[in-house]
Design brief:
Blueprint lengths: L3 E2 H8 L3 H10 L9 E2 L1 H14 L8 E14 L3 E15 L2 H72 L5 H64 L8 E3 L7 H15 L19 E4 L2 E3 H8 L3 H10 L9 E3 H10 L3 E4 L4 H8 L6 E3 L3 E6 L5 H9 L3 H4 L9 E7 L2 E7 L7 H9 L3 E7 L6 H13 L3 E6 L8 H9 L13 E4 L8 H15 L2 E3 L5 E10 L3 E10 L2 E2 L3 E4 L2 E4 L2 E3 L8 E2 L3 E6 L10 E5 L2 H37 L3 E9 L2 H13 L5 E10 L4 H10 L2 E5 L5 H9 L4 E4 L2 H15 L3 E18 L3 E11 L1 E2 L3 E6 L2 E13 L2 E2 L2 E2 L4 E6 L10 E10 L4
Parallel strand pairs: 6-9, 11-13, 11-14, 14-15, 15-16, 27-28, 27-29, 29-30
Antiparallel strand pairs: 1-2, 3-4, 4-5, 7-8, 10-17, 12-13, 18-19, 18-26, 19-25, 20-24, 21-22, 21-26, 23-25, 31-32, 31-39, 32-38, 33-37, 34-35, 34-39, 35-36, 35-38
Helix pairs in contact: 4-5, 7-8, 13-14, 19-20
């Protein structure tokens, strides 16, 4: 850094020149006012000033004081304030002292290790020495015993010889006795020697074991000490060399501290004997979860013995948002369980149901009447053909002349009984036709000879194929002049429905529902097909069947049309139909006549159920009403949970899509119809009308008349109320009028769908398009002091209007878009100039008009949109 003058330095540090010169003089540097100062001189002055002000060294001592005040309760109403003062003094150690301290600690540690090792070696040597001493003593004792034994043997031998010499000759008996006594003495002596030897060996072994154990104990203690030392070294936190060490201990009121500690301890240990002794498992526990069709997040967590938060976290990691009460379907639950490292086992939730329905099955099978479904396109004469067979006038009673329900009829013919199901042909009734196909044995496909194959004709063929049911084609309306049966055969052959005449397997009958032509041949074809199928069913036992249609009758309550397929259905039986059950109060045939017993292939209307069953559900007679109630309740619960699971899944999947789509208009509808099948068909048709801009939302639907509840629901959700073959009662009408809710009645499905479509079209955002109304070509450009550039133009197409927006085009490329500032013909301001006339045009905020440019005049037109 460059040298600076005294004046500059004084101004930089904010002092006077004289004072700075005096400070340099005190530091031993002589300077005058105009002299230069270098870095070394600056540093010297700084050191001098630091020493002078006592900041040459950092503080070596620091004291911290702390005061806390607390209140103690003494007795019931007395309180004592306690003040605790703490004081800590920290002394700074120098680097040399710190190094010395560390060296001393290291030396002490090494000395301690050496001492421990030395002690262990000394103890091991002592133990070894003691063991050797014991072994030596045992060896000496053994030698002494052997010498004593040899000496005694020698003495005994001498005594025996002396006795033998002194005593006279002994007899044989005395010799034997003496020999026995000698042997006994020898045995006792050997036993004593063995016992002494065994004791010595045991003592030696015990001494060796004690020495070994002592050596192992010392070795273990030495290892533990080594590990403890290493652990302390690893955990030791090395601070900066200028750290503070605690020098003085806390100074506080010991009596108050002791009493408060005692009180804390008593509180801490309160209820210690009540604590459970559960220890956390060392390894993860793998559990097997039994899964049904649905399970909530809370139940799953309970079965896995973990908190619900863990399951929710796992699902969030998998990209699925969940709550504790959310219902999971089986597939989702399986994925979550596998993700968490557990196993699952799928169980049957329908055990009670299977047990209930298994009762009374089996029995001898007998021939039954065929169930024939009549299918075909709308207005091809299905009901009229059935009317001719039944000699009835059903078609006259149908609204608009089209069938809108499944009708079931049993007909007595010359060839035996035949059960007919008449299905709707309208596009909306797909589900109804599919139900008819599954419940049937033979399908009659009615095709109008003058109309040929239509969309619902193709659909009927597909339903028959899917159900695996034989097909008989009835070519109707043969009485018309325009009838062309060969065309029908050709068109059906393209659908792989080939007549027997052309080498196929399908019977074709030319009929006329009006004149009755060919109807007998059609019935014969049905009987022939039934004989080929050899239709049989169990005639005795509990009845089973299918719900063809259901409705709510104002006077009789829920009414279900049931086709009995097996066994017998009697009045008084307990019938389980899907989520509904009940005792059969009465049964009627299609003509309204009451019947007591219905056998196989018999359609009946059943009264007495707890609610309106869903069309297409299985109906079965059960013995136990309590179990039937349980099964119905369980089915209802399961359906609700599955619905919730699907809704939740749909919500989560569509969350981002809904956010991106922005505002979508909704048309809320409350729908009531006369039968369940119509509700199903209309709901499906209306939902299909939904678009990306307008959505149909059916907030409520059901079977039966429009009630006050429906009206209140419509008021709350801002919905329109649609009644299909039903009417509103007086209370509902009052609510609807008061809330000014739109109520509409329909009896033909065409009209209902068309009007809803029109209402949705009205909710669509309008569409705007630009329409060119005139074109002017720039022939010359004039400069105006007031208006700028004025284009002299010739109108070549349409009209130029002053109020409309314009575009300026150069070489057919838009270069400016704006509006006209002035439009003149000669000197007059005009509003419009027609084709073929000259005019002067001033473009607002644009002066770059050139000869040859085109000025295009357009207007924005609103276009009405339709769905």
């Amino acid at each position: 850094m460059a040298d600076v003058s005294i004046e500059k330095l004084a101004s930089d540090i904010g002092t006077t020149v004289d004072r700075l010169v005096g400070q340099f003089k005190d530091a031993g540097i002589s300077k005058n006012a105009g002299d230069q100062v270098n870095e070394d001189e600056k540093q010297k002055l700084l050191d001098h000033l630091s020493k002078q002000h006592g900041s040459a060294a950092e503080p070596t001592r620091m004291t911290l004081k702390r005061k806390t005040t607390s209140t103690l309760s003494v007795g019931k109403s007395k309180e004592v304030k306690v003040e605790v003062r703490k004081k800590r003094t920290y002394v700074k150690r120098s680097d040399v002292e710190e190094q010395q301290r560390q060296a001393e600690e290291e030396a002490k540690r090494l000395e301690e290790e050496a001492r421990l090792k030395r002690e262990a070696e000394e103890k091991a040597a002592e133990a070894k020495k003691a063991a050797e001493e014991k072994a030596r003593k045992a060896e000496e004792a053994k030698k002494a015993a052997e010498e004593e034994r040899a000496r005694r043997a020698e003495q005994a031998k001498k005594e025996a010889e002396a006795r033998k010499a002194d005593e006279p000759e002994l007899t044989e008996a005395e010799k034997a006795e003496a020999e026995a006594a000698r042997q006994e003495e020898e045995r006792l002596r050997k036993a004593q020697e063995e016992e002494a030897q065994k004791k010595l060996e045991e003592d030696a072994k015990k001494a060796a074991d004690e020495a070994r154990k002592l050596a192992e104990e010392n070795e273990r203690r030495w290892k533990e000490e080594e590990e403890r030392r290493k652990k302390e070294e690893a955990e030791e936190v090395h601070l900066h060399s200028n750290r503070y060490a605690q020098e003085a201990e806390d100074e506080e009121d010991m009596q108050v501290e002791r009493s408060s500690r005692r009180r804390r301890k008593s509180k801490k240990n309160a209820g210690e004997h009540l604590k459970q002794g559960f220890n956390k498992p060392a390894a993860p526990v793998e559990r097997v979860v039994k899964l049904g069709a649905t399970i909530t997040v809370g139940e799953l967590a309970s079965k896995l013995a973990i908190k619900s938060n863990e399951v929710i976290k796992t699902m969030m990691k998998m990209g699925e948002m969940a709550t504790i009460n959310q219902v999971l379907d089986q597939d989702t639950a399986v994925l979550v369980i596998e993700e968490m490292g557990h196993k699952y086992e799928l169980v049957n939730d329908n055990a009670l149901e299977d047990e209930l329905l298994a009762d009374g099955t089996g029995g001898e099978k007998t021939t039954r009447a065929p169930v024939v479904t009549i299918m075909g396109h709308v207005d091809h004469g299905k009901t009229s053909l059935l009317d001719y067979i039944r000699r009835a006038k059903v078609a006259d009673g149908e609204a608009g002349g089209i069938t809108q329900h499944i009708g079931a009829y049993k007909v007595e013919t010359e060839n035996g009984e035949i059960t007919f199901l008449d299905t709707p042909g309208h596009a909306a009734f797909t589900a109804m036709r599919a139900r008819g196909a599954t419940a049937t044995d033979i399908v009659i496909l009615v095709v109008a000879a003058d109309d040929g194959v239509m969309p619902q004709t193709k659909e009927a063929v597909q339903h028959a194929r899917a159900a695996g049911v034989p097909l008989i084609v009835a070519v109707n309306k043969m009485d018309k002049e325009t009838a062309d049966p060969d065309r029908v055969k050709t068109e059906l052959s393209q659908l792989e429905v080939i007549s027997e005449e052309w080498g196929g397997e399908h019977q074709f009958c030319n009929v006329s529902a009006k004149t009755g032509m060919g109807v007998d041949e059609l019935l014969e074809a049905i009987v022939l097909q039934a004989e080929v199928l050899d239709l049989k069913a169990v005639a005795e036992g509990p009845g089973r069947g299918i719900v063809i249609e259901s409705r709510l009758d104002k006077g009789r309550g829920p009414v279900a049309s049931v086709l009995v397929q097996e066994g017998q259905l009697r009045a008084g039986d307990i019938l389980l139909c899907g989520e509904e059950y009940g005792r059969v109060r009465a049964m009627r045939d299609e003509n309204g006549n009451e019947i007591k017993i219905a056998g196989p292939s018999t359609p009946v209307e059943v009264l007495g159920l707890s609610g309106v069953p869903v069309a297409g559900e299985d109906a079965a007679v059960v013995k136990d009403e309590r179990k039937a109630r349980e099964v119905a309740a369980k089915r209802h619960q399961k359906k609700r949970e599955l619905k919730l699971a699907r809704q939740q899944k749909a919500k989560l999947e569509n969350m981002f899509a809904n956010m991106e789509s922005g505002d979508v208009s909704e048309l809320n509808i409350v729908l009531k119809a006369d039968v369940q099948g119509s509700v199903e068909a209309i709901s499906e048709s209306l939902v299909k009308l939904s678009t990306s801009e307008v959505k149909v939302n059916i907030v409520g639907s059901g079977v039966g008349g429009i009630t006050e509840t429906d009206a209140t629901l419509a008021a709350a959700s801002g919905a329109i109320v649609l009644g299909f073959n039903v009417r509103a009662d007086a209370t509902a009408r009052r609510v609807l009028e008061a809330e000014e809710i739109d109520l509409r009645y329909y009896s033909v499905i065409y009209n209902l769908i068309d009007e809803v479509k029109a209402a949705m079209s009205g909710m669509l955002a309008p569409e705007f398009k630009q329409e060119i109304i005139g074109l002017a070509e720039v022939r010359d450009v004039f400069k105006s002091p007031k208006l700028g550039a004025i284009a002299g133009c010739m109108v070549t197409e349409g009209n130029v209007k002053r109020s409309n927006p314009i575009r300026v085009l150069r070489d057919n490329v838009v270069i400016y878009e704006g509006e006209l500032e002035s439009l003149r013909r000669f000197k007059d301001d005009v509003q419009e100039v027609r084709n073929g006339m000259e005019c002067g045009i001033g473009v607002k905020n644009y002066n770059d008009v050139k000869v040859g440019d085109q000025i295009e005049v357009f207007e924005i037109v609103e276009v009405k949109r339709e769905i």
